[in-house]
Amino acid sequence: MSQTINAFNARLTDRVRRIYPDYDADIVVSQIVEAFWPEGTHRRQRARTPSNRLWSQQDALLITYGNSITDGSHKPLDLLHDFLRRHLSDVVSGVHILPFFPHTSDDGFAVTDYRAVNPQLGDWADIGRIASEFHLMSDLVLNHVSSQGPWFNAYRQRQAPYDRFFFEADPKEDLSAVVRPRTTPLLQEVETKDGPRHVWCTFSHDQVDLDFRNPEVLLEMLRIIRLHIDAGVRILRLDAVAFLWKEAGTSCIHLPQTHAIVQLMRLLCDYAVETVVLLTETNVPRTENLSYFGNRNEAHAVYNFPLPPLILHAMQSGTARYLHKWQSAMPPAQLGCAYLNFTASHDGIGMRPAEGVLPPEEKARMIDTVQQAGGLVSMRALPQGGEEPYELNCSLFDAMRRTFDGEDAHHIARFLCSQTIVMSLEGIPAFYIHSLLATPNDHEGVERRGMNRAINRHRWHYPDLLALLDDPTSEQSHVLHGMSERLRIRAKQPAFHPNATQFTLSLDDRLFGVWRQSLDRSQSIFAIHNVSSETVLLSPPRINLIEDDSWVDLLTGKEIVATGPDIPFAPYQCRWISNR
């Protein structure tokens, strides 16, 4: 017992010394333990060892706002719970409820109180009911807080400890190397009791960055994590974590101290009695993104950010060439780690993750096609000056209405194909509620709220939504039924375990395919998707079906003969060809 405690203390001390070399490590370690395990709680005797048992093929996540469904009379969280039970109880295993805290802007990401549920959504009891039936993911918005919240108001009054909670900088310093996700000025001048100060605002002037050079900021975040774990949260999404640590003269992204803080949080989670998964949100190119796995000592899972732009390009262009090239170079996740695969979220489709993968002319064609489908483009400022597209803002369902050649009759099939690719790949699939519900662009929301991202943050009136889902001819019914059926099939296939073996198949550019094999090698699945509007024939020998096995397409139930005729793929058809 003493050896395990000593091992934990040694590892925690090492991380503290890397983050706070000028502080007494023993004192900070003691404060961290007290913050994460307050009186009445305890930790595991031994660390939870990395394994692939944290998840299975039965896992899939819904991404939603707490008020994506409303009716004007019931609490939105109650309506969400009702929708989950009616339509998704055997379809998804977990729910990511985007920031459900009191806030002032950015649909929840300018938090005023991490310890409360936004009363317009419901209360902690409502959160708890959902957490009792689904794995609950919440956002730890740890880079910044609202400029109108009590923390920043106390900072402006120079009240301890908040007088040292926010990152200040001198506007005369050279900050040209700072990587920016926005075009707004980085520094904001504010009046305080002691005169004007310039505070750091990575995202907006209503989102003021915290100063993690002060260990009190980290301790407060750990207390908040503990509160959320006690409330039933089992997946912690570290929002905008890449920007956590700042140093003038650097890029202020992915700095060593940032990685050390993630490692510290992972260590605490490994010793938590509760099973807690850390997920990092870093909308950056592949190598930078994968760095947050660390050496199996940082995030349990990372967002697979290149997927949204690459899958959208494949579906619009009719070729999987670039998607195939990128996927062929992707390493398998380390033991105890997993990718979170998705095509759409509350944010736009990020273009930075496509850097070095899609040529400029292909990105330009994507942007033009999305704009023709009614979508918008948001920009980011470049360190050397100027701007470039940062994300495409569009309902994914509407983005799929058009290809590079225009509109056609295959809209729904094309959209379902894009989502089936996500279900087939190594990792845990996650689906934005507006993808499941085939939600169109919300142009009225953009005009009313004055922000591009509102185009993909529609709020459904629940009676209207239920009526559409009950109508078998509606797009909403078609899409939800199609995706649900495929997810139910997927949940039964061990070859779709998030860490099952994967090999990318070399096929006709119009076909994107992977071979998956279960961890015990009992099942193989050839998951093949036609991303074009043409019928494509595939010869069975191309995928080396073993003749002694019986093969079946899980999606149609039809037998596939290893020595038989060419396998036809209708426009946007997907096949999961399995020997079990």
Output the structural class: alpha/beta
From the spread of the alpha carbons, the general shape counts as globular
Largest sheet: 8 strands, parallel, barrel
Computed over alpha carbons, the radius of gyration is 24 Å
Helical fraction: 25-40%
Low-confidence stretches: none
State the CATH topology of the domain at 61-140 and 218-225 and 281-493.
Answer: TIM Barrel
Strand order of the largest sheet: 1-3-4-9-10-11-12-18
Proportion of residues in extended strands: 15-25%
CATH class of the domain at 61-140 and 218-225 and 281-493, anyone?
Alpha Beta
Mean pLDDT: 96
Number of helices: 17
Terminal CA distance reads 46 Å
CATH 4th-level superfamily of the domain at 61-140 and 218-225 and 281-493: Glycosidases
What CATH architecture of the domain at 61-140 and 218-225 and 281-493 do you see? Alpha-Beta Barrel
